[in-house]
Amino acid sequence: MLFRILTLREHKTVTFCEAYSYELYRQQLMIFNELLGDKHLVVGAVIDAEWCFDVNRSGVRVVSVNKIRDVFTPEKSLTYKSYHFTGKDVMLDDSFANELNGGIHLLRWKFYIDLITFIRNDLLDAGIVQLSTPILTKYRGTSIANPANVTGEYIGKRYIKITHELELKKRVYMSLVPVFELGYVVRDRYVTKTGRSEFLTLESVLPINFSFELKDFYQRILTKAISLAKEYSLEYNHGFDDVAVVDVLSEYRKSTNTVSRERLLCFFDKLSEKYNHVIFINAPFDSPLGLMSEWGVPLETQWNLNGHGIGHGYSDEYRTDYLVREFYRQQLVLREKGIDAELPEDYIRYCEYGSIPTYSFNLGIERFVEFFFNS
Known about the structure:
Elements: E1 2-10, E2 14-21, E3 25-32, E4 46-55, E5 61-72, H1 94-101, H2 106-125, E6 129-130, H3 166-175, E7 179-186, E8 198-207, H4 214-231, E9 244-247, H5 248-255, H6 261-272, E10 277-284, E11 299-305, E12 308-315, H7 320-336, H8 345-353, E13 358-363, H9 365-372
Parallel strand pairs: 3-5, 6-7, 9-10
Antiparallel strand pairs: 1-2, 1-4, 2-3, 4-5, 7-8, 8-13, 10-11, 11-12, 12-13
Helix pairs in contact: 2-4
């Protein structure tokens, strides 16, 4: 379990901490110093620990740490307060449904709502909390993804291109809770491959110790979609009937044991051409946020149909110096195009002060539905 250290009292053989966790909220931790080894605790750090309930010499119940798996220390020290998190259900209400219902076949619409409901319940059953942030909304035309040069009520100034799950990551940083959000996102700078500039999407961010298998989640969605289509007698793209699940690294190692970033990327490009409908795991991709692997490139899970991405997920790594260099590079590229863009200072600040490794994934729900009903 993850615990955020709020206060520290160090003694000769034991350290006592006030700490916050998603499941236990605020508790007193008792850590025998021999468990720390060469690890050092500071206020604001997050520890991944095995624990049990115990009592101290005063008879007060405490959380006794049995094993410390890892310690994640923010780059800069910070005075932390207790960030209490309260889960809140966010429903797709009637106004959301009615706004989009015009001109859509009733059974197709029922399929759409039932699939969204299934996705929502599947994540809730897994213990992931649904919430609502300013970055995704249930209404069209009010949310912006990857802003390069935009202004708005929430954004308020021009930003470098960043991932729009920032608001979700802030929740994970401070509460250690696994979260997801359903809502509309607007690609105001370009039009997607489906010809749309906005669509309903799922975004989720999980703390590193949360157990969740993304490829199984994607397969459950596919199975449910086919089941609903048959139940409502709807014709759908039968290219979805079969999906290959391919471990890219496993396939690569069948041909060579050479650890080479360039060879792996080239191998994946050729491998991708062999499959129309596939879920790749351990697929190489380029991102300043991805956790760097021994192959010199981040790895992710991808769900693709005929070269179109439906969803993907990967482990995040927050190397602030690397991110700042990437943001400066984007700033220069935009400046050459006559666009002045400011650095995303709030994102950088969260990386410096509160970030821990996380796992982020998404699913373009409206994109999936459009492909599902069009061959």
